[in-house]
Structures are given as C-alpha cells and as structure tokens.
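Record now logged for everyone:
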Amino acid sequence: MKKLVVILAVVCVLFAGVVGYMSYANRPADADPAEEPETSQPLDAQESAEPVQIPSVDYDAMRASHEPDEIVATCNGRDVRWDEYFYWASYNAAQVENYITSMVTYYGMEVSWDDPWGQDTDQSFAEYVPVSAEEQIKQINCIEDFAAENNVVLSDETLAEIEEQLKSTIASTCGEDATEEDFNQYLDQVYMTRALYDRMNQINYLYQQGYTQLYGENGELVDDAAAVAYLEDNEYISANHILLMTVDSATGEALDEETIAAQEQKAREIAAELQAIEDPQLLLTRFAELKEEYCEDTGKVSYPDGYTFTPGTMVTEFEDACNALADYQVSDPILTSYGYHIIIRLPLDPDKTVEYSHEGTPMNARSLAASAEYASRMDAQYEKTSFEYVPGFSFSIKDFLK
C-alpha cells in the first residue's frame, strides 16, 4: 500500500460503508452460494463444481482473545487498544476472506491464506492482515499529528455538520426513530466502537480542513510562481488550436476529397491571417473569434482556452508542432488523423483548466500543485509516524481460522 493512497482509503472507509463491511463475514454459515455476486463463470460450471472447504475466520473468537481496553501497541506515543487494532485486523481479514472465497468458489483458483497477496510481494494474505492494520492505524495518527502541527482545528460549523451527519447515519442504518444507543449496538455488531466511529468522522474532516486551510478550497492560495513551477517540473505544454476535421465526427470515416481540400484551404487562410498579427493580445482576440467560427473540436466546450497537457497525451503530430513553437507563435496547418490544426503555443497559465476531477470539478495548476504538495507533506508526516507493539503481544490471523 502506498502511503497517500492508504490515507485516502482510511479517510473514505467510513463513507463507503464501513459499518456494513462485515455483511459478508457475518453471513450465515449455511448461506446459499446462489445469493453471492454473479461471476463470469458459466452456470453449468458452477453447478458441476465440487464443494470446496475454505477456512473462515472466527471473528468472535478473535475479538474475545484480548480485553477491549488492553494496550497492544503504541503509535507516536499514543496507546493503541485491542478494540481498535481488532477492528482494523478484522476489516482486512474480511476483505481477504471474501477475495479468497470468490477466487476458489467461482473461478476454481487455488488460493490460500499462505499465498502472496500481490505479484510484487512475498507477503502472504495472512501476513497482510496485521501489516495493513498497522498502516491504517498509522494513517489515522498521521493525520491527527499533521493537524496538530499545522494548527488545523475543526470549526463550530464543521462540528455541527458532523453532528447532522451522525443523525443521518443513524437513521439510514437503524431507522428513523433509532437512538444513539441503537446505533452503538449496531456498531458493536460490526466490531466498531463508538469512539473509533467518532474519531474516524473527525479524521475525515481534519484531512479536508488541512487542505483547505493551507491551500484554499480549490488551491487558490497557491501563488503564481509555485503553480507555474509545478507545470514546468512536470513538463506541461499549453496550446490552443482550431481544428478543421477531415473525418466524420460521428463515424470516424474520412470525408470526401473535395471537402478535405476545402478544409485544407480554409486552414491555410486562417493560419496566414493569424501569423500576420504581431501584437499578442490582438492575436489572442482574433484567434478566439476564428476558433468560435470554425473550430470543430468537441473538446472546445470543456477547454475553451485550449489544452495544458503533458508529453504523450496528444497525438504525435500535434505535440511535435507545439514543441517547435515559441509562445504566441502560430503554426502552419498540421494534419493529424482528426484533420487540420492551426496551433498557437501559449505561456503556462496557473488558472487555466488542466483537467477535471472525477466529480467534474475543473482543476488548474494551483489545485494540482496543492494536491501534490499536500500528498508529499502527508507522506513526510507518515515517515515520522512510529508503530510499536507492546512486549509480549503477538497476533496471527491463522490462529483464528476454522
């Protein structure tokens, strides 16, 4: 597990349904395999397969092996109780158990707890469980320590938001009329303590608040120099273009020769007009007008000011043309598999949209630089985070296989 990825995984666990993760582990022993998720294996193969005995984890026995408040480790000087360690160990064990069961039952693969859990590791699935628990506990402490060192605190407004979220979660998991006691009992059924639930809730907000406090909601506190330096360090190129297509945008089939010749002629006329303009501002204004009139690139809606991209992102002819241009220089028509491009190379702009997030939020150099720096600082914080077991404590998931 990579450090930042683990941080984000821990932060997101709660809101991805952490209180329900044991639905598989707590299924009845005689559960009907037909109720398991569908797979790509043919039905007749599933019906003819011999029953396979797969060792399962006795989570109740594991939980009862130590007292809930027993100190089993320390993390950056903080005590780690068994109930917290057990939760993360059982969480990881349930994921592994689910994976092994799926591979054996539905795909006929020979997978056991002693097998390596990845292609690039000798660590077995059994060894993965406690190691991952350690990493997840370190991530929690890492975020808390980072917040403390950078004076990140949750506002009254955020605390009120957490309280409202709790009410919503109680209603969705236990019913509209459920009490906090009902919710605490529900958490206990999935091996999570209320203290850990509340801590994870605050961790999520601390992580987000740390970013906002240091960099702004969308990285707007990152200055121009740092944003441009991020683009330069990552070899970004900025350019705008006017595309006259030589293929049908719907089918990808080539247009007829007469239309292609007309497109080439128009591209040459546009390029010649733009190349004759010496003033950069006048050039940009006229380029925008001609782009609005002639450009057939469907991406111009999302990227009206052109693209800021890294090497290997665009087609070769387009990138080569960009690399040959100076800022504010206009190319001759460049033919690619899409059509004729008239390209203008642009200076790197910290506020120009570079890409979009998974949620559709436009991200510029400031937000990308902020995310990269935040990840780097969290990685550095993680490197300072220590985890040590108390003398005499040992744990192996294999002790609880049945």
Observations:
- The chain is about 50% helix and 10% strand.
- The longest strand covers residues 237-245.
